[in-house]
Design a protein that fits this description.
Layout: H1 2-12, H2 39-55, H3 59-73, H4 80-94, H5 107-120, H6 124-142
Helix pairs in contact: 1-4, 2-3, 3-4, 5-6
C-alpha cells in the first residue's frame, strides 16, 4: 500500500495536493457515486484491493483491477485515476507488456466507462477501452513498420 502512496506523491508533487490517504469527503463530477468518507475504511479498502490484485497471476488482470479499484476507492484528495493508470502500467511493464496511454480514448467514453463501474459495478465498457488501448499501443508504438 505504501508503494501506491509513493506513486501518488510523485504524480502530485508541486501541484498543491495533499499527500497520503484523504481525510475529507470526495465527490466525483457526473455521478451519484459517493466514495468512502472515513480514512480508516479507505485504508482497509486499499489494503483489500492490494491483496486481491496480488492474487492475480495475469498482468492484464492486475492492471485492469488496479485501474478500476484505485479509481473506485478514491483514496487520495486528487490524482486517483492518474495514480491508478500508472500503477496499471507498472504491472504491464513488469511483465514485459507495453504500457497504455489512453490518449486515443474519447474523454466522454472514458468517463462513461468509469461511471458505469462506479454506479453499476460493470467493468465491461472499461475493459473494452482497456483492450482497445492495448491494441493501439502495440500497433502504434511497438510494431515495426516496413517502408
Amino acid at each position: 500500500m505504501r508503494k501506491i502512496e509513493n506513486i501518488h506523491e510523485l504524480l502530485v508533487y508541486n501541484l498543491g495536493v495533499s499527500k497520503g490517504i484523504r481525510k475529507k469527503l470526495a465527490g466525483i463530477t457526473g455521478t451519484k457515486y459517493k466514495p468512502l468518507d472515513n480514512e480508516y475504511q479507505i485504508k482497509e479498502a486499499l489494503e483489500k484491493t492490494v491483496k486481491i490484485i496480488n492474487n492475480f497471476k495475469n498482468p492484464f488482470s492486475k492492471a485492469l483491477a488496479a485501474i478500476l479499484m484505485i479509481s473506485y476507492i478514491q483514496p487520495f484528495e486528487d490524482g486517483n485515476k492518474r495514480t491508478a493508470r500508472l500503477l496499471g502500467d507498472a504491472f504491464l511493464l513488469a511483465h514485459i507488456a507495453c504500457p497504455l496511454s489512453f490518449r486515443s480514448v474519447n474523454e466522454a467514453d472514458y468517463k462513461k466507462a468509469m461511471i458505469l463501474f462506479y454506479e453499476q459495478n460493470s467493468a465491461r465498457f472499461f475493459k473494452e477501452l482497456f483492450i482497445q488501448q492495448f491494441e493501439f499501443a502495440v500497433n502504434n508504438y511497438f510494431l515495426t513498420k516496413n517502408p
